[in-house]
Design brief:
Largest sheet: 7 strands, mixed
CATH superfamily of the largest domain: Alpha/Beta hydrolase fold, catalytic domain
Strand order of the largest sheet: 1-3-2-4-5-6-7
Order of helices and strands: EEHEHEHEHHHHHEHEH
Number of domains: 2
Number of strands: 7
CATH architecture of the largest domain: 3-Layer(aba) Sandwich
Strand content: 5-15%
CATH class of the largest domain: Alpha Beta
CATH topology of the largest domain: Rossmann fold
Length: about 270
């Protein structure tokens, strides 16, 4: 679990517009550091700390707006999100837009949208039919997959036999402890709970209004989500303007690493002068 909500990701030039980038599902922005290093703009990462309000995507966006305004009191803002962070970035931009139509200069989405996470989890969700224990189990198994290789179905069966979310969290922490021996057990539990709450929040999210500003989608060309969500990842349903779409070689994780990161940085820079 990160201890700081907003972190400086590079040493960009102060004269350039700041870019505020929102974390992927893991809640930290370490995966965005390489990209930030390629940009001349100052880049600030938003991370999901224990104190973040995960009641809903709307409440999380509101929490982050306070942090952003502590760095930059007034707009226009350049907001970016990666993966899960695209959903939060969209909602954040919608809320800022209510303060003034010019509050957001650019909304830049890195391989994600308001429908992206749900599309990834739809296969196992369709089997749940609203079963909370199964939702908890699959979310925690997905969390474990970030760190371990294991027999998914075998562990899933074991977790489903446990009587509560607390017991499932405890098992998750026990399994991760040998791999993350440098991390306190309570931190592992907090991270697992945070991961689950983020999934629940994004699953029930529906924007209350359409966003009226410029939207740029930079997507990974090897990501199959285009087949499911369409060319613009279903963003046209929640955006008033036509979404500007750019493709970069690589998959969901690799496109923001070498060599694709250079093109991603070039595209972002063209909108952030």
């Amino acid at each position: 679990m990160p201890k700081t909500t907003i972190v400086k990701l590079n040493e960009g030039k102060p004269a350039k517009d700041a870019i505020f980038m929102i974390h992927p599902i893991e809640g930290v922005t370490v995966s965005l550091e390489n990209l930030a290093s390629k940009l001349e703009n100052p880049v600030y990462g938003l991370q999901c700390v224990k104190e973040a309000d995960l009641t809903s995507v709307e409440s999380l966006a509101k929490f982050y707006i306070k942090e952003i305004k502590a760095v930059q009191a007034e707009g226009p803002y350049t907001i970016a999100g990666y993966s899960y962070g695209c959903t939060v970035a969209l909602e954040l931009a919608i809320q800022l837009e209510k303060e003034g139509k010019d509050a957001v200069k650019n909304l830049i989405l890195l391989d994600g949208s308001q429908k992206y996470v749900s599309a990834q989890t739809s296969t196992y969700k369709s089997k749940h039919s609203g079963n909370t224990s199964e939702s908890e189990t699959d979310a925690l198994c997905t969390f474990l997959m970030q760190f371990l290789t294991f027999e998914y179905l075998k562990l899933r069966e074991e977790m489903l036999k446990l009587p509560s979310l607390t017991e499932r969290i405890n098992l998750t922490a026990k399994l991760l402890q040998p791999t993350l021996s440098h991390v306190p057990v309570e931190d592992i539990k907090e991270a697992a709970v945070s991961f689950y709450k983020k999934l629940v929040a994004v699953d029930k999210y529906e924007p209350k209004s359409k966003y009226g500003g410029k939207v740029v989608l930079i997507k990974a060309l090897s990501n199959r989500s285009t087949k499911v969500l369409g060319e613009d990842y279903s963003l046209s349903a929640v955006c008033k303007e036509k979404v500007e779409v750019h493709g970069v070689k690589g998959n969901h994780r690799s496109f923001i690493q070498v060599p694709g990161v250079e093109k991603v940085a070039t595209i972002i820079s063209s909108y952030s002068q």
